[in-house]
Amino acid sequence: MLTVETLTVTRGGRTVLRDVNLTLAPGRTLAVLGQSGAGKSTLVASVLGLLRPDHGQVRWNGAPLPRGAAALVMQEPRAAFNPRLTLRRSVQEPLRARRLPDDPVRLARLCRGLELPPESLDRLPGQVSIGQAQRAGVLRALIAAPPLILFDEPLSALDAMTQKHTARMISELQREEGFAALVVTHDLGYAAAHADAIAVLRAGQIEETAETATFFAAPQSAYGRSLVEAAVSLGALGRQTAA
Ligand SMILES: Nc1ncnc2c1ncn2[C@@H]1O[C@H](COP(=O)(O)OP(=O)(O)OP(=O)(O)O)[C@@H](O)[C@H]1O
């Protein structure tokens, strides 16, 4: 269980996260919704332990998050990889980092789940499609079976069809593997379809958190309502979720 407790982070002299509280249980997906500059990437970096908070803490089962317990899927798939290494080398890097042996059976199963032809792993990141590169990014995050995976706008570099397909593959793998997923996104359609719970982040503060159906049926904060209304009017949400 991930708990983020009264997390406050300052960057460049400004408080960019203030008293953020979140919880996320294994097997569940929490979507953190927020617009550009809300502090989503700062939250991800803080959970990963890359930024030191001024105040508050990130815990996993009541203790500091162990090294290797969290993996990250970044927004830009190609930028996430060393351009000079084959995808296979990069994908297996988390195993090397943790001194774990290769597991060809697991690798083959994950490749199937992500519809990645095994031979695509022998190419360089620039030699596969963006969609394949992003799925290789998911593969790298999953390979060492971390209990927590953070996704920073994981689908925004992909076209709409590929987004839907990739999101379904990730959800299916989550059902099999049971990891907790924290997804920061401004994509309400994705959140409505794939998250169990929603947290709304605005200007570094959590405006509300709720189970997904509850949030979309009746957002409690004025900002949450405006996000849902904007998404409905853009056609990004099904009518059943219109508030
Ligand atoms: N290294 C930094 N130094 C100073 N300020 C920063 C730094 N990184 C981010 N910020 C500021 O912190 C705030 C939150 O940034 P952050 O990148 O976490 O937001 P975000 O919600 O992820 O936005 P986006 O969706 O555009 O990536 C912004 O106002 C940003 O300008």
From TrEMBL:
UniProt record, GO biological process: transmembrane transport
Domain ABC transporter: 2-228
Single GO molecular function: ATP binding
Keyword Transport: yes
Superkingdom of the organism of origin: Bacteria
Record's keyword terms, sorted: ATP-binding, Nucleotide-binding, Transport
InterPro entries in the record: AAA+_ATPase, ABC_transp_ATP-bind, ABC_transporter-like_ATP-bd, P-loop_NTPase
Entry annotated with the keyword ATP-binding: yes
Family: Belongs to the ABC transporter superfamily.
Protein's recorded name: ABC transporter ATP-binding protein
